[in-house]
Each structure stands twice: as structure tokens, then as C-alpha cells.
Amino acid sequence: MVIASIDLKDGHVVQLKNGKDLVLQRDDADKLIQEFDRYGEVAVIDLDAAMGHVDAKGNTVNTPLLKSLLRKGNVRTGGGVRSVKRARELVSLGAEKVIVGSAAWNAGRKEGESLLNVSFLEELAAAIGKQRIIISVDAINGKIAVKGWTESLPVSLIEGAKEAEKYCSELLFTCVEKEGCMGGTDMEMVSSLRQSVSCRVVAAGGVSSVEEVASLEKLGCDVQLGMALYTGKVRLDDCFVSCVNWEKAGGLVPVIVQSPAREVLMLGFVNEEALRKSFETGKMTFFSRTKGRLWTKGETSSHFLNLVKVRADCDRDTILATAVPVGGVCHTGSWNCFSSEADEASSMERLYATIADRFANPKPGRYTATLNDKRVREKVMEEAEELTEAEGHDELVWEAADLLYFVGVLMYKGGVSWQDVYDELDRRHKEK
Predict the structure, then answer these.
(1) DSSP code of residue 175
(2) Is 138 a catalytic residue?
(3) What's this model's pTM, rounded to 2 decimal places?
(4) Cα Rg, the chain, nearest whole Å
(5) What distance in Å separates the CA atoms of residue 368 and residue 356, rounded to the nearest whole number?
(6) Burial class (CB in 10 A: 0-12, 13-18, 19+), 191
(7) Given 7, 37, 186, 402, the catalytic residue
(8) Which helix (H) or strand (E) holds 202?
């Protein structure tokens, strides 16, 4: 699959040729990550940090933008990660994986010493887990490149990769000579790397066509794309379709559809045409095995499934789609195909959506829309006191429900979502 790259330099989104020459510059990072996350993971790279342009606290001009992007998708990040403290901070801020480059290597090693900075990598694995570590095995003329690609080590790519995989869950290989040139990557070198290690391998640098992405997928490698996406030479929807293992699935791939709250809604099947139509229209379209044709969910009931994003499983023969349901999903009228309930299950998100609707569409006699800032804060304090004084199971449940309702109103009026709260709780958990 493809991992779209957002490279940051001087506070902008950029693409560089050979890691140094500016080719393009943009200032729409939020739009880009929303688009990229629809089809897979996103890599956010701080190039200034990679080049050592940091302040006393380890921050760069890109840091505010980087932090704002980390919770907006399935994001991995890298560039100048030289300490365990920095890696832990990035994970706590939302990074799913951390890419380590120069700090992983023992650049000044003497004869007989390890190729890698073993003490650092062992401490890093203990702090954030090996599964969250990606080690860059960038290469210039087949030799490991470090320090923002300004220096090469007297170590071959394959030799370095075999040692590096002991301390990470995947390797990110960039062929520096090909980076940003869109002339194709070094397939022979990628193939040799894939055969030499057992961990996940992501190839970057020069990939310039959907056909090349598909070829790398068949080798068992993912692809990190930058320039080809920004110039429009390659489209992410085409890449996703090309990476699905249609042959193994017999032409029909099962699609599990879940709500944004991760509630499973239904299971359907797609062929290539149905998947492409889902991408084109933004509404989940399947291949009906009963009718023998394409079928857009909601075409008769208007209960559409509005597509948010897709992910393929590790074998590329099953797809997980996240979609926003419009009404009940099941043909029986049930909210999903695995229960008989007519409505969405209660959750903080459902409560929040109801509160938002009450303010957006106020009706006479409705209480919610009458709550101003002063009154809702008074009610939060009042209900909190009543909860602390509640006795017995039922009274605690009742008062807790009251408090959560008013907290939800206060959050809505302040522009805070429950996901924001979940993210903060996650940050605190990972910070410890």
C-alpha cells in the first residue's frame, strides 16, 4: 500500500529533489492530510529537524504544524528524532510510529564496534515498544546515508538493514539518488533488501507510476510517495485499487463497514469497478452477488453510507471502510446488520451530535438551545454536586447521566469534541 508523505520545511509543505533542491511548496497541510488519510497511512517528516535546525528544546519552525497533524490520521513521523524523550513526546501527541534516522547509527564507530547505536535503540524500544519504531536505511550509492543525507557510512544497505531490523518493526528505505526525480526507483536494490530482512519494508525515492507501486506491492513492499502525488502523476485511489489482491480473492473482496465510532455496520463485497465507484461518488458501492450488478447502498432507501476512509488488511484481500451512515443500514430497518435495534447505540458521540442538532435546529419547547454559557456552567456545577451526594446504584447512574449531558453542552459551546478529550487521555497514558 501507499504511505503519502507530507514533508515540512520552514513552516511549509515542500518537495525536494535529491533531498536538497526545492521543487514545490504548499501551505495546505490540513487539506492534504484529510485527502491522504482516506487511503492509508501518512508520513509527516520535519526536514528542518533532520538537518539539525532545532532550538534548545529540540523544536523547529515546523513544530506547531507537526503537532497539529499528528492526530488527524494514521500518522507516522520522523526527522531529527535523536532522543527517547522526543520519541515518547511524539507518540503521546498521536504518532503511531516514529521514524529514527541518524540517531540509530553509530557514525563514529571504531573497528569491532556495533554499526548501530544499540544503547539508544534498546532504551527507545523499552520506552515506546519495538512495534512503534521505524529505522531509516537511506542509501547513497548503496551505502547508508545519515545526517540529512549529507554523509555516508562505510556500511552497505543490506548489512545495515540486517542489523537494524533487530530493533524495529519496519525499515524505511530511500534511494537518495532517485528521491524527487520521478524516474523510477532502484527495483533491484529494493528486491535485494526485501529478500534480506523479514520485517516490513517501505520503499521511497523515485516511484513515479501506479504500475511501479503494484510491482513493489508484489515484492511485499509498501511505498512512501511524495513528488508523484503532488504533481498528479500518481493518484492514491488508483494505487489502493492496484494493491488489492483481487486474484487471491477471486475478484470479489469482502468489505467490513464501520461507523466513525468503530461500530460494525455491515459486510459487503466489491469488485474493482465497485471500489472505484465508491471512491468517485463518496458513497459505498458494492457488487451484489444476488443481483449480479453494482449496488450503491441507499439507492432505493436513501440510507447511504458516506465514505470516510478505507484500509486494506495485511493480506490485501479484505477492506475495512469507515463510513457515516444516513439512517438505518440494514434492509430490515435496523441500525446495523448485526442487531435488531432501530437506532444507533448510545454513546458520547451520539449525545454530542444530538446536542449539536438541538442548537442548529432549535424548536419551541426544546430545552437545550435555551442554555447560554452562564447557565450551562451553573448546571455543570449543580449536577456535579448532586452526583457527589448521590447514594445507591440507580441514583448514581441518573446523576452521572445528567452531568454528562451538561458537560456535553459546555464542550459543544466551547468547540471541544469527545475525540479531543479521548486524545488528551491517550496523550497522558502514553506520556507516563
Answers:
(1) B
(2) yes
(3) 0.86
(4) 25
(5) 9
(6) middle
(7) 7
(8) strand 200-204
